[in-house]
User: Fold this.
Amino acid sequence: MGVDEHLADILSVVGPLSPLDLGLLDAHGCVLAEDVVAPGPLPSFDNSGMDGYAVRAADVTRPGTVLPVVGDVAAGPASPLRVQPGLCVRIMTGAAMPAGADTVVPVEHTDGGVASVRIDRVPVVGAYVRRVGEDVQAGELVLEKGSYLGAAQVGLAAGVGRSRVLVRPRPRVVVVSTGSELVEPGTPLGPGRIPDSNSLALTAAALEAGAIAYRVGIVPDDPRKLLDTLEDQLVRADVLVTSGGVSVGAYDVVKEVLSRLGTVRFSKVAMQPGMPQGFGTIGPDSTPVFGLPGNPVSALVSFEVFVRPALRRMLGAEPLSRPQVAARTTEELRSPKGKRTFVRVRLDVRDKTYAVTPVSGAGSHLLAGMARANALAIVPEDVERVNKGEQVQVMLLERRSR
Ligand code: AMP
Ligand code: MG
Assistant:
């Protein structure tokens, strides 16, 4: 099966999650499922843009004008002070403009006086006054449905008075590793044992993709235990991700257990790394389940190519794929005939163009190379060799926390 065909299969099953009303900080990093409209203007009242003096501009026609200061207004509840002709008020940034005043003179343009003030520059009428509605008008659409809620968007929603918004929630991803050779990282290894790195890497990858991720950890190659674990986890999963046990060996427990359910298909996908792939749905809610291969690089590359786009679809986020750029390769790249190869590379800018250099051999157990890579060069199915200096498409693996 081709890579695109397998992905299309997955995306035909996975849809955006139903919208949920969330507090702004829980909604951070999600995609809006409603338009956010400002009920009133921003700023909501005329206020001072500087620390200084609220004056009537008509009173200050010459540098060196001295005005009596009749009081102070600070940010906070509006002051009852009124600025009569020939007088002024000391004012702080964000304080409501007192009635009568039309202009703010910054303290830097004065002698800073308290009882009276000498103004050294003639102000322009209306200077340093932040006008009602100059940022946002009442009734204005400030955040559109489908837009991503980053820090600035969270700030704007709060700024127009919202505490909650309707968003597509983060999918809950449950990550299970299978393998009787696996031990919890940090605990002593017996002979033939290895630390379970996949469930940590895949949980981290799910978090980076914007999901809520639960790491279940290790399940031995025992069909009963795997089935029990998956059944237990279904209640809190929008997606299940397993690693290992999907190839053709004896004890390939994921394949054994999930094939029996009839709704999960195991395919040989024409890619390297990551050929054996399982995907389908299980449980009463038809929860999508990904059976990723066990080799650590295969697991992570499969996550990038298949799971991440599915999670983005659930989040309602666009585009589904990582950004790609064209880059020149500094070394020859090889790819088996008929397979799409994802080459672990380091991407940098050289002579103002992108260049990639492989950082690892092709072995799908070579995790250190994967950790050095910041991108995957994509060698298409019909290409067996990319010569040094030729262009190749590159998928960027920016490591961004959510
Ligand atoms: P499998 O797909 O189960 O045949 O595993 C393929 C290879 O990946 C074997 O060498 C496994 O030991 C290794 N492997 C499987 N699961 C993990 C894991 N969770 N962490 C690290 N290596 C793993
Ligand atoms: Mg295994």
Q: What stands out?
A: The first strand starts at residue 20 and ends at 23. The chain has a mean pLDDT of 96. The chain has four domains: 3-16+170-315, 20-42+134-168, 47-130, 324-396. The first helix runs from residue 3 to 13.
